[in-house]
Every structure is written in C-alpha cells, then in structure tokens.
C-alpha cells in the first residue's frame, strides 16, 4: 500500500455552478485548491483526476429515469423537470450539469477505489460530499450523491463493513436513505436539529430499516447555537464507540464546513479549530479501526472565502500527514488572489485562534437538563442498545 495520500482534483469540477446568485459558489473549490498549493501540499500528495462516473456506476445508487432527467436538463436547462428536483431554486438546471456532476462523483468513486485497492492510504475529494441527492431526485444543491456512490462501489468491490461519518451542519439524508436497509453500512450524522434546519430529517429515532439493518443509522440532532465544546463533546460521546464496535474496513467521512459560526445558511457556532479537531479525530479513527483506509469528502460551506478554503486545506494536510499548524500565517500570494477574484479581504491565519479546543468527555458525567446532553442521550438511547452497547 502506498503511504501517500491522493488528492482527487480536476479543474473542471469548478463548472458545478448554479449561477451568480446561488450560495454554492464554485470559487470555494478553486480557492481551496490554490491554498493547498500555497502551503506546498501538492508535494505531499498524489494529485489525481479520475474519470467521470459512467451510467452503470451512477445506477448503483440513482434510478435510470432520474439520470435520464439530469441528462435532459443538462442538454436543455429550460426544459428541466421539477418533479425530479431539477430547475428549482435549490438546484437550478445549467448546461453541462450532468457532465460535471458525474465528474465530481467520479472523483469520490476513484478515491474509494484507490483506498480499497491499496493505491493510497487516504484519499480526499473536497469537491464531493454532495450528500442530499436521492436515488430519484436532486435535493439541497446536490445532483448526484457521490458519497453514496463511493460507498456503493466499495460494496461492489467486496467491502463488508463501511462506516460513514457526516459532520456537515445538515443531515446526511441521501446517504442514510441509500443504505437504510443495508447493515453493511453504518451511517452516523451529526447535524443541526431538524426542527430548525433543512432537510428536516435526522431525528434520533431514524435508526435504519426493521430487521438486520436496524441500528445502522445514527443521528445526533444538535440544538441551534451549539459551539465548539458541545460539538466535540457530542462527536466523542457517540462516534468512537460506534466505530470501535463496528470495525469498518473503510471509513468514509463528510466534512461540510457549514457548521462554522460565520456560515450564512445555518445556526451552529463551531470554529475552524473545532473542525480541524474533528478531522484529526476521523484520521485517527481510520488508523485505529480501519487499517488507515480513509476516504474524506467536502460538503456544504457557504462562507466561501472566510471558512471553506481553510477548513478543507486542513483536511488535505491531515490526510497527507503534514498538518498545517493552527497558528500558520496564510501566504500573501493567496490572499492577493482572493481579493482579485472576489474583492473580499482574505483571512490572515489558518484558524480562529481557539486551538486547542477544550471539551468535557462524556465519561466525566452528563446533565439531563442540558440541551446538548439531551441530544447525545437521545442518540445513544435510540441506537446503542440495538447494537448491543450500553446507552
């Protein structure tokens, strides 16, 4: 197995562009790629461009009629069929939509293949993590569900236990739905409570289909306003114990940066320092329980200058084994490029100055009256007994 990480990248992924008024501005991908380069991380990873996902691969998750609808909308955006979630405010149709969505999916599938085959220990596709797309429809800025496709490809290659951990502020509903009946896939999502945020799913009671898959879906629904200490407390109170029990052969993680306190579309209050801490924790869990096999994806994140490039550059650096220090000064050349592209002032340092982030371990006790602890208790009580663990 190669000890090097792969960074999946094709400049054409920046063509995933819903238009100038849409919050998912592809500049966030371009700026992340440039910041990775500015820190010299290109020398520490193998930069690889995988081929687009073909129709047979897309059909591992998506229905044929939906793929056909995406192709039709891609060729003629004005004729997009809204019954498939296309041509809507969240998912406007645009020319070439099928091609670039398949390209992004192909990078995640390629990452999974490289890790499974031992061509890379870790692989990162920060353009991926489009976790809302459903088998038969677009949703939440997502056309094809690359995370689900990567997992489905791993199953096709012979994997029997895959863990998926999603720390995007929004529930990883599309991935949960894709594997709702499959006990080979453990999906864990930490997200803002569905009462206050799209997609209004991800309740603790959603635990997988009755039968062998019951207990294979885990949802930690966090109260709006949750900050660093609560977010890390919830993660460590739920995720490591489940991963230790499940012993996945591959760990797939989704690192949406929209948990950040500056994100305009959600209501958590997490810093870059805490995001970096969870990235480190996921890396460590992969090594402890999955022989290091780790596929890391991007996701949401709509503070496209202030947050996303820094968060995902940390992710690439951690995967590469060359972590960027939280206090690192951002290279001036990148800051100048940010201003030239966006007319916004770029941040000066790589985190929010909160490192190391402190939190209270679950083992030290909990408060049943605390809203954060209530969220953790609800998740543990819903799932842990189904998996033979103490809630």
Task: Name the descriptors.
single chain; 391 residues; alpha/beta; 8-stranded parallel β-sheet; 11 helices
Could you write a compact summary of the structure shown?
The chain is α/β, with parallel strands linked by helices and 391 residues long.
What does it look like?
The protein has 11 helices and 8 strands. It has helices at residues 27-38, 55-58, 64-75, 97-116, 146-156, 173-178, 228-246, 272-289, 308-320, 332-342, 371-383; strands spanning 5-8, 45-48, 122-125, 162-166, 185-192, 217-222, 250-254, 294-297. The chain has an 8-stranded parallel beta sheet with strand order 2-1-3-8-7-4-5-6, with helices on both faces. The two termini are 38 Å apart. The mean pLDDT is 98.
Query: What is the helix tally?
Result: 11
Mean pLDDT across residues: 98
Tell me the span between the first and last alpha carbons: 38 Å
Estimated structural class: alpha/beta
What can be said about the biggest beta sheet? 8 strands, parallel
Radius of gyration: 19 Å
Instruction: Give the number of DSSP strands.
Output: 8
Detail the poorly predicted runs: none
Give me the strand/helix succession. EHEHHHEHEHEEHEHEHHH
What is the beta-strand fraction? 5-15%
Note the topology.
Layout: E1 5-8, H1 27-38, E2 45-48, H2 55-58, H3 64-75, H4 97-116, E3 122-125, H5 146-156, E4 162-166, H6 173-178, E5 185-192, E6 217-222, H7 228-246, E7 250-254, H8 272-289, E8 294-297, H9 308-320, H10 332-342, H11 371-383
Parallel strand pairs: 1-2, 1-3, 3-8, 4-5, 4-7, 5-6, 7-8
Helix pairs in contact: 1-9, 1-10, 4-5, 7-8, 7-11, 8-9
């Amino acid at each position: 197995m190669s000890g090097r990480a792969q960074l999946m990248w094709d400049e054409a992924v920046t063509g995933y562009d819903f238009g100038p008024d849409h919050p998912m501005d592809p500049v966030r991908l371009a700026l992340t790629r440039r910041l990775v380069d500015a820190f010299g991380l290109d020398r520490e990873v193998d930069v690889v461009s995988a081929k687009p996902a073909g129709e047979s691969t897309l059909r591992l998750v998506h229905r044929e009629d939906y793929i056909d609808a995406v192709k039709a909308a891609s060729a003629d955006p004005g004729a997009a069929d809204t019954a498939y979630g296309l041509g809507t405010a969240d998912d406007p149709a645009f020319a070439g939509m099928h091609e670039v969505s398949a390209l992004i999916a192909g990078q995640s599938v390629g990452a999974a293949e490289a890790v499974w085959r031992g061509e890379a220990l870790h692989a990162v596709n920060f353009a991926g993590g489009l976790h809302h797309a459903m088998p038969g429809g677009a949703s939440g800025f997502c056309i094809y569900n690359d995370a689900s496709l990567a997992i489905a490809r791993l199953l096709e290659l012979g994997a029997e236990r895959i863990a998926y951990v999603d720390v995007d502020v929004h529930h990883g509903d599309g991935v949960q739905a894709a594997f709702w009946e499959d006990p080979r896939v453990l999906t864990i999502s930490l997200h803002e409570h569905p009462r206050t945020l799209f997609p209004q799913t991800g309740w603790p009671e959603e635990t997988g289909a009755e039968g062998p898959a019951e207990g294979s879906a885990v949802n930690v629904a966090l109260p709006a306003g949750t900050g660093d200490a609560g977010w890390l407390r919830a993660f460590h109170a739920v995720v490591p114990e489940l991963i230790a029990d499940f012993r996945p052969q591959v760990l797939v993680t989704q690192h949406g940066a929209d948990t950040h306190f500056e994100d305009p579309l959600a209501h958590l209050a997490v810093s870059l320092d805490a995001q970096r801490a969870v990235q480190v924790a996921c890396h460590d869990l992969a090594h402890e329980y999955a022989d290091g096999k780790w596929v890391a994806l991007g996701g949401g994140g709509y503070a496209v200058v202030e947050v996303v490039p820094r968060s995902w550059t940390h992710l690439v650096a951690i995967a590469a084994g060359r972590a960027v220090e939280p206090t690192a000064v951002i290279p001036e050349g990148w800051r100048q490029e940010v201003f030239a592209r966006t007319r916004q002032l770029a941040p000066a340092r790589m985190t929010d100055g909160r490192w190391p982030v402190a939190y209270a371990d679950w083992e030290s006790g909990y408060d049943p009256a605390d809203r954060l602890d209530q969220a953790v208790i609800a998740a543990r009580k819903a799932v842990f007994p189904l998996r033979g663990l103490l809630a």
